[in-house]
Amino acid sequence: MKPLPVSPLAPNKKQILTPIAGCQMASRNASIYYDGRFDMLLMAFDPGTTVAGVLTTNKMPGPSINWCRKHLSSGTARGLVVNAGNANVFTGTHGIVACAETAKSAAAVLKCQPQEVMIASTGVIGEPIRYERIIANLPAAQAELADDAWEIAAATIMTTDTFAKMASRTASINGHSVKINGIAKGSGMISPNMATTLSFIVTDAKLPPSLLKAMLTRGIERSFNLITVDGDQSTSDMAMIFATCKSGPENIEFSTTKDPALRDFRRKLYDLLHDLAIQVVSDGEGASKLIRVAVSGAASALAAKRIAMSIANSPLVKAAIAGADANWGRIVMAVGKSGQKANRDKLSIAIGGIEVANNGMCVARYDKSKVNTHMNSKNIDIEVDVGVSRGRSIVWTCDLTHRYLEINADYRN
Amino acid sequence: MKPLPVSPLAPNKKQILTPIAGCQMASRNASIYYDGRFDMLLMAFDPGTTVAGVLTTNKMPGPSINWCRKHLSSGTARGLVVNAGNANVFTGTHGIVACAETAKSAAAVLKCQPQEVMIASTGVIGEPIRYERIIANLPAAQAELADDAWEIAAATIMTTDTFAKMASRTASINGHSVKINGIAKGSGMISPNMATTLSFIVTDAKLPPSLLKAMLTRGIERSFNLITVDGDQSTSDMAMIFATCKSGPENIEFSTTKDPALRDFRRKLYDLLHDLAIQVVSDGEGASKLIRVAVSGAASALAAKRIAMSIANSPLVKAAIAGADANWGRIVMAVGKSGQKANRDKLSIAIGGIEVANNGMCVARYDKSKVNTHMNSKNIDIEVDVGVSRGRSIVWTCDLTHRYLEINADYRN
C-alpha cells in the first residue's frame, strides 16, 4: 500500500509523550495485513491499574467490542493488545475465538487473567484474522516492553491515518502532579478497511474505575462525539482510559467527579481528548479544511448539536467549503433539515466572524473580500444562531473533496 | 449558465403528455434569473377543479410553501404560477409580498380569487425575487394558454435538471377512462440554487380534495419519500395534484380511497409518482449509476426504510459504487449505523442478485465476475436482509462521483 501524503491539516509540532509509571509497551511486525511496518501493540499495566471504556453504539460491532464491554465491568486491567490491518469483524465465531485466544496468550506472558486483557482491532473486515501471528509475537513483545515507546505505539495502530496522533497533559490533584498520555487513530475509510476511531489514554493518577468511566464518558461527549468526517460510524470505535494509580494522594476517596480536587484533572483530560479528536478529524480522507460549526440559540444543547451535525454532515455544505464558497444558503437548508426548532426570521449566520445573514435575511453589504480570504484558509469558522433559546453546541468536520473520492471510489477490488 | 450534459441515466424515451380537459398552460421568459429560456409557467384550471398538496417539512420553508399550505385547505384551485431561477427564500417580508402580489395579479387575469392561485418558486436563495417581472408576463401568458404545451411546461420549471421530467398514465374509474399527467423537477444543487423537488399532477378525474390528499400523501410516501440524492432536503419541496373533474361518473361519492372503484386510479397515480421520482433521482448531480436498496427482515417497514436510507445516504457506500466496487463491508457499517435492530449473525447481502454475505459472514465463493459486471452497469441492485422480522422497504439513490464535486465545489462565487 503506497504511503499517503500527510494531511495538510496535520499539527505543526508533534507532542512528546514521556513515560508513565506502571505502564510499558512494545510494538511488533506481525504481518497480519501490512508488510514492513509495526502492526501489533502490546501494552502492559502494573497490578492495581483501573480502567474504563466507551465503545461504539453501532449495531454491528466486532467481537472485540463485545469482549471489552464484558470485561471492562471489572474495572481493572493488566494488558491491551491492539492490531492494525484486520478489524476482526463479520467473520462469525472465528472472530470470537480470535479475541479469546489472544487474551489468553497475552495473559500468559503478562502473568494475569485473560479477562484483564483488553483487545482492539482495526483494518479490513470480513477476512478471518490471522490471530496466530499475534499470539506468536507476544513473547517477544513482552521481552521488549519499555516505558518510552509512545510514538512508535501511536504509529503502530494506524491504518489509513497519514500521521500518528498523540497528546499529553499534566494535571494537579491535591497538589500532586499527574500525567495523562493519549494516542489515537482514525481518519476515514480506504477500501476495504473500516473507519475506526480508537483512543487509548493512560494516566498515573490514582482513580477508581467509576470515576474514570464518568470522566471518560463526559470527555468523549465533548470531543469524539462532536466530530464527524462523513457521518459514518464504525463497527469498532472505542476509547479506553487506564489509570496505573502510581501518583497522587494516598487514602483519599473522591466521591464524585465534581470533587474540586479533580477539577484540574478533568479539564486536562477533556482538553487532551479534544486535542486527539481534532487530530482525527484533521486526518479525514481528502480533508483540506478543518471546519468548526458553532450553533447557538437552540431549544437545548442537544438540539444545537443536532443542528450543528446536520450542517457538518451535509455533503453540499462540505463541498461548497471545499470550493472556498461561503454558501450560507446551504447552511440555511441544513438547519431546516435538522428538524430542530429554529426561528427563520431570527436566523443569523457568520462566516469567519463576518455576519453574512441576520434576522432571516442576507446582510446587504458585508466584507466579501474578508470572507473570501477566510474561505481560502485552512480553518473555517461557521456560526449560526437560530433564535429560539440558549442551547449551544460546537462540532468539527472537514470538507468534501475530490481526494475523498480518489480514496474511496477510484480503485478496483 | 452553460448547458449541462444530460444525465447518463435519463430515460431513453420521452413520455407524451396529451391535453387534459379543464387544464391549460403557458410558458414565458420572464428573465427572473435565466436569460433566453422559459422560466415562468402559468397553469389555468376550470372552475370546479379540486386540489391537494404535500409540502416540505424543512423548518426553514419559503413563503410560497406557507402560502400554499394556507390556501390548499380550501381544496379548490384555479391557477398555478411557477417560476424557475429564484426560490423566493430567506428574503424576509419581501418574499411574502411577492407571493401575495403574484397571486393577486394571476387571479385578475384568470378571473378567480387570489387564494385559488397556487405559487411555487425554485432557484437561487437569499436574493429578492423580481416578482414584478412575473406579474408583467401574466397577461401575455393568459392570452397564450393552450392545452397541449406540457413538454414546454416541464422544461420551464427546470433549474439544474439536465432533462425535463414527465409522466402520463390512464386509469379507469367505474369504467370511465381518466388521464393523469405529471411534470416534475429536481436533481440537486448548483451554486447558489437550492435543491428543490417540485411535482405537479393534473387529472381530469372527478375527485374530492380529501381523497386527492389521501392518495397524494400515500403516493408521495411510496415515491418521492423513498429517493435520496445526497440526504439534503430543500426549503421548497412540494407536490400538488389538481383534478379538473371533467371525466368520470356523475353523482358518485367515493367514501374512502379504499373504494374498489378507485383501485386502478390509485395504482396508476402511485406508479406515475414513482416514475417521476426515479427520473428525479436519475438526475442527481453527477450521477452515473441508479442504485436500488431493498431491505427486508427488519423490525417494521419504518425500520426497513431507515436502514435502507442509512445505506443510501452513506457517502462511503455511494463512493464505492461510483468506483464499481462491491464493498459490502460498508453496507454492513451503514446497517449498523442506522440504529435499527439487526441480527448480525443472520445478516445477508446480495449485489445484483448474487449473495455476497450470508448469516453474518462473507460468502466464500461467489461469482466475482458476475458481481463486477453488475457493478460496472448503470443499474445497481443491493438487497439486505437483517434477520429480525418482516419489515421491508426499497429506496433509490445515485452514486457519489467527481462530477458531483465539480458541480458543487469547483466554482467561485
Automatic annotation (TrEMBL), chains A, B:
The active site is at 196 (nucleophile). The keyword Amino-acid biosynthesis applies. Its EC number is 2.3.1.35, 2.3.1.1. The record marks 122-123 as: Involved in the stabilization of negative charge on the oxyanion by the formation of the oxyanion hole. GO terms for biological process: L-arginine biosynthetic process; ornithine biosynthetic process. It is found in: Cytoplasm. Keywords: Acyltransferase, Amino-acid biosynthesis, Arginine biosynthesis, Autocatalytic cleavage, Cytoplasm, Multifunctional enzyme, Transferase. Pfam families: ArgJ. GO terms for cellular component: cytoplasm. The record marks 195-196 as: Cleavage. Pathway: Amino-acid biosynthesis; L-arginine biosynthesis; N(2)-acetyl-L-ornithine from L-glutamate: step 1/4; Amino-acid biosynthesis; L-arginine biosynthesis; L-ornithine and N-acetyl-L-glutamate from L-glutamate and N(2)-acetyl-L-ornithine (cyclic): step 1/1. Its main location: cytoplasm. GO terms for molecular function: L-glutamate N-acetyltransferase activity; L-glutamate N-acetyltransferase activity, acting on acetyl-L-ornithine as donor. It catalyses: L-glutamate + acetyl-CoA = N-acetyl-L-glutamate + CoA + H(+); N(2)-acetyl-L-ornithine + L-glutamate = N-acetyl-L-glutamate + L-ornithine. InterPro entries: Arg_biosynth_ArgJ, ArgJ-like_dom_sf, ArgJ_beta_C. Substrate binds at residues 159, 185, 196, 285, 408. Catalyzes two activities which are involved in the cyclic version of arginine biosynthesis: the synthesis of N-acetylglutamate from glutamate and acetyl-CoA as the acetyl donor, and of ornithine by transacetylation between N(2)-acetylornithine and glutamate. Heterotetramer of two alpha and two beta chains. PANTHER family: ARGININE BIOSYNTHESIS BIFUNCTIONAL PROTEIN ARGJ, ARGININE BIOSYNTHESIS BIFUNCTIONAL PROTEIN ARGJ, MITOCHONDRIAL. Belongs to the ArgJ family. NCBIfam families: ArgJ, PRK05388.1. This is Arginine biosynthesis bifunctional protein ArgJ.
